[in-house]
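User: quick one, fold this
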Amino acid sequence: MIYLQTILGLVILLCGAEVLVRGAVYIARSFGISHLVIGMTIVAFGTSAPELVVVLDAVVLESEGLALGSLIGSNIANILLVLGASTLVIRGGPEISVDRSDIIFLTGGTLVFVLLSVFGTLDLGAGVILFGVFTAFLIQSFRKHLPSRSAATHTENTFHSTLFKKIFAGLSVIIGVGAVLWGANQMVQGCVEIARSLHVSEEVIGLTLVALGTSLPELATSFVAAARGNLEMAVGNILGSNLFNLLGIGGLAAIISPLPVPPQLLLFDIWVMLGATILLVPFLMGRWHLRPHVGAVFFAGYLAYIGLQAVGVGGMLE
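Assistant:
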């Protein structure tokens, strides 16, 4: 029964990702919005819902370490695992080049999060700063990337998009997000039960399955998008999700309650996250190209990170 639940969760997860991507692509085309922006907003916010739920629940239960660990671990997984796996299925297609302002928000926002964390606690002031940067990112994204009125009108006339089709596409996005979240939840529950039945320690479960579980929606959606030739949407999903995690969710959580930063995160994980983010910049700028062999390196990097967690790298550093 556990194995059936796990397989069912995976199937629903992938089907939901397919529906979500199809609906999002249609919306992007009908309104003249780039796939990158749709990935950074609608798709990214939808697939980051697990992180939001996990973090807010953890804050309410006064498990601040779990909250921050989930955010940082998810961002590492998004870059090394999600982008790595998505790049493995690329079959040609156009190169990506993300707007410089978006890159600045990603690297600058991550750096601000790291600098505020070094003080040992993310308090109300830090939360306001983080959420303020996130709000600025949203405003500039829509102002800069949304088409002009004349361009939008031209797109409307040439694309022949009916109101019914737009409504259907919007419903597809909503249904897709719901299916992705439900499928991810079922798969994670199944994996946890399987791990326990095999007598795997709770620590290993937390280091692997919980972090992976909150990134499953991004993994499924970005993987499907890349496989369908929408690499821009896949990259936009990862970029938007990471910003939403650190600045949006992290800022909101810090506003609700102060978040003490555990020593392991300060000594190791937070720097891995910053390093992975900086490594991503040349690819976002189009100077380096995302290819399957690059994806393999990213994927191997994530496996190495999990391996270090499994052997207790945090305890060694402390």
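User: anything notable?
Assistant: Residues 163-197 form the longest helix (35 residues).
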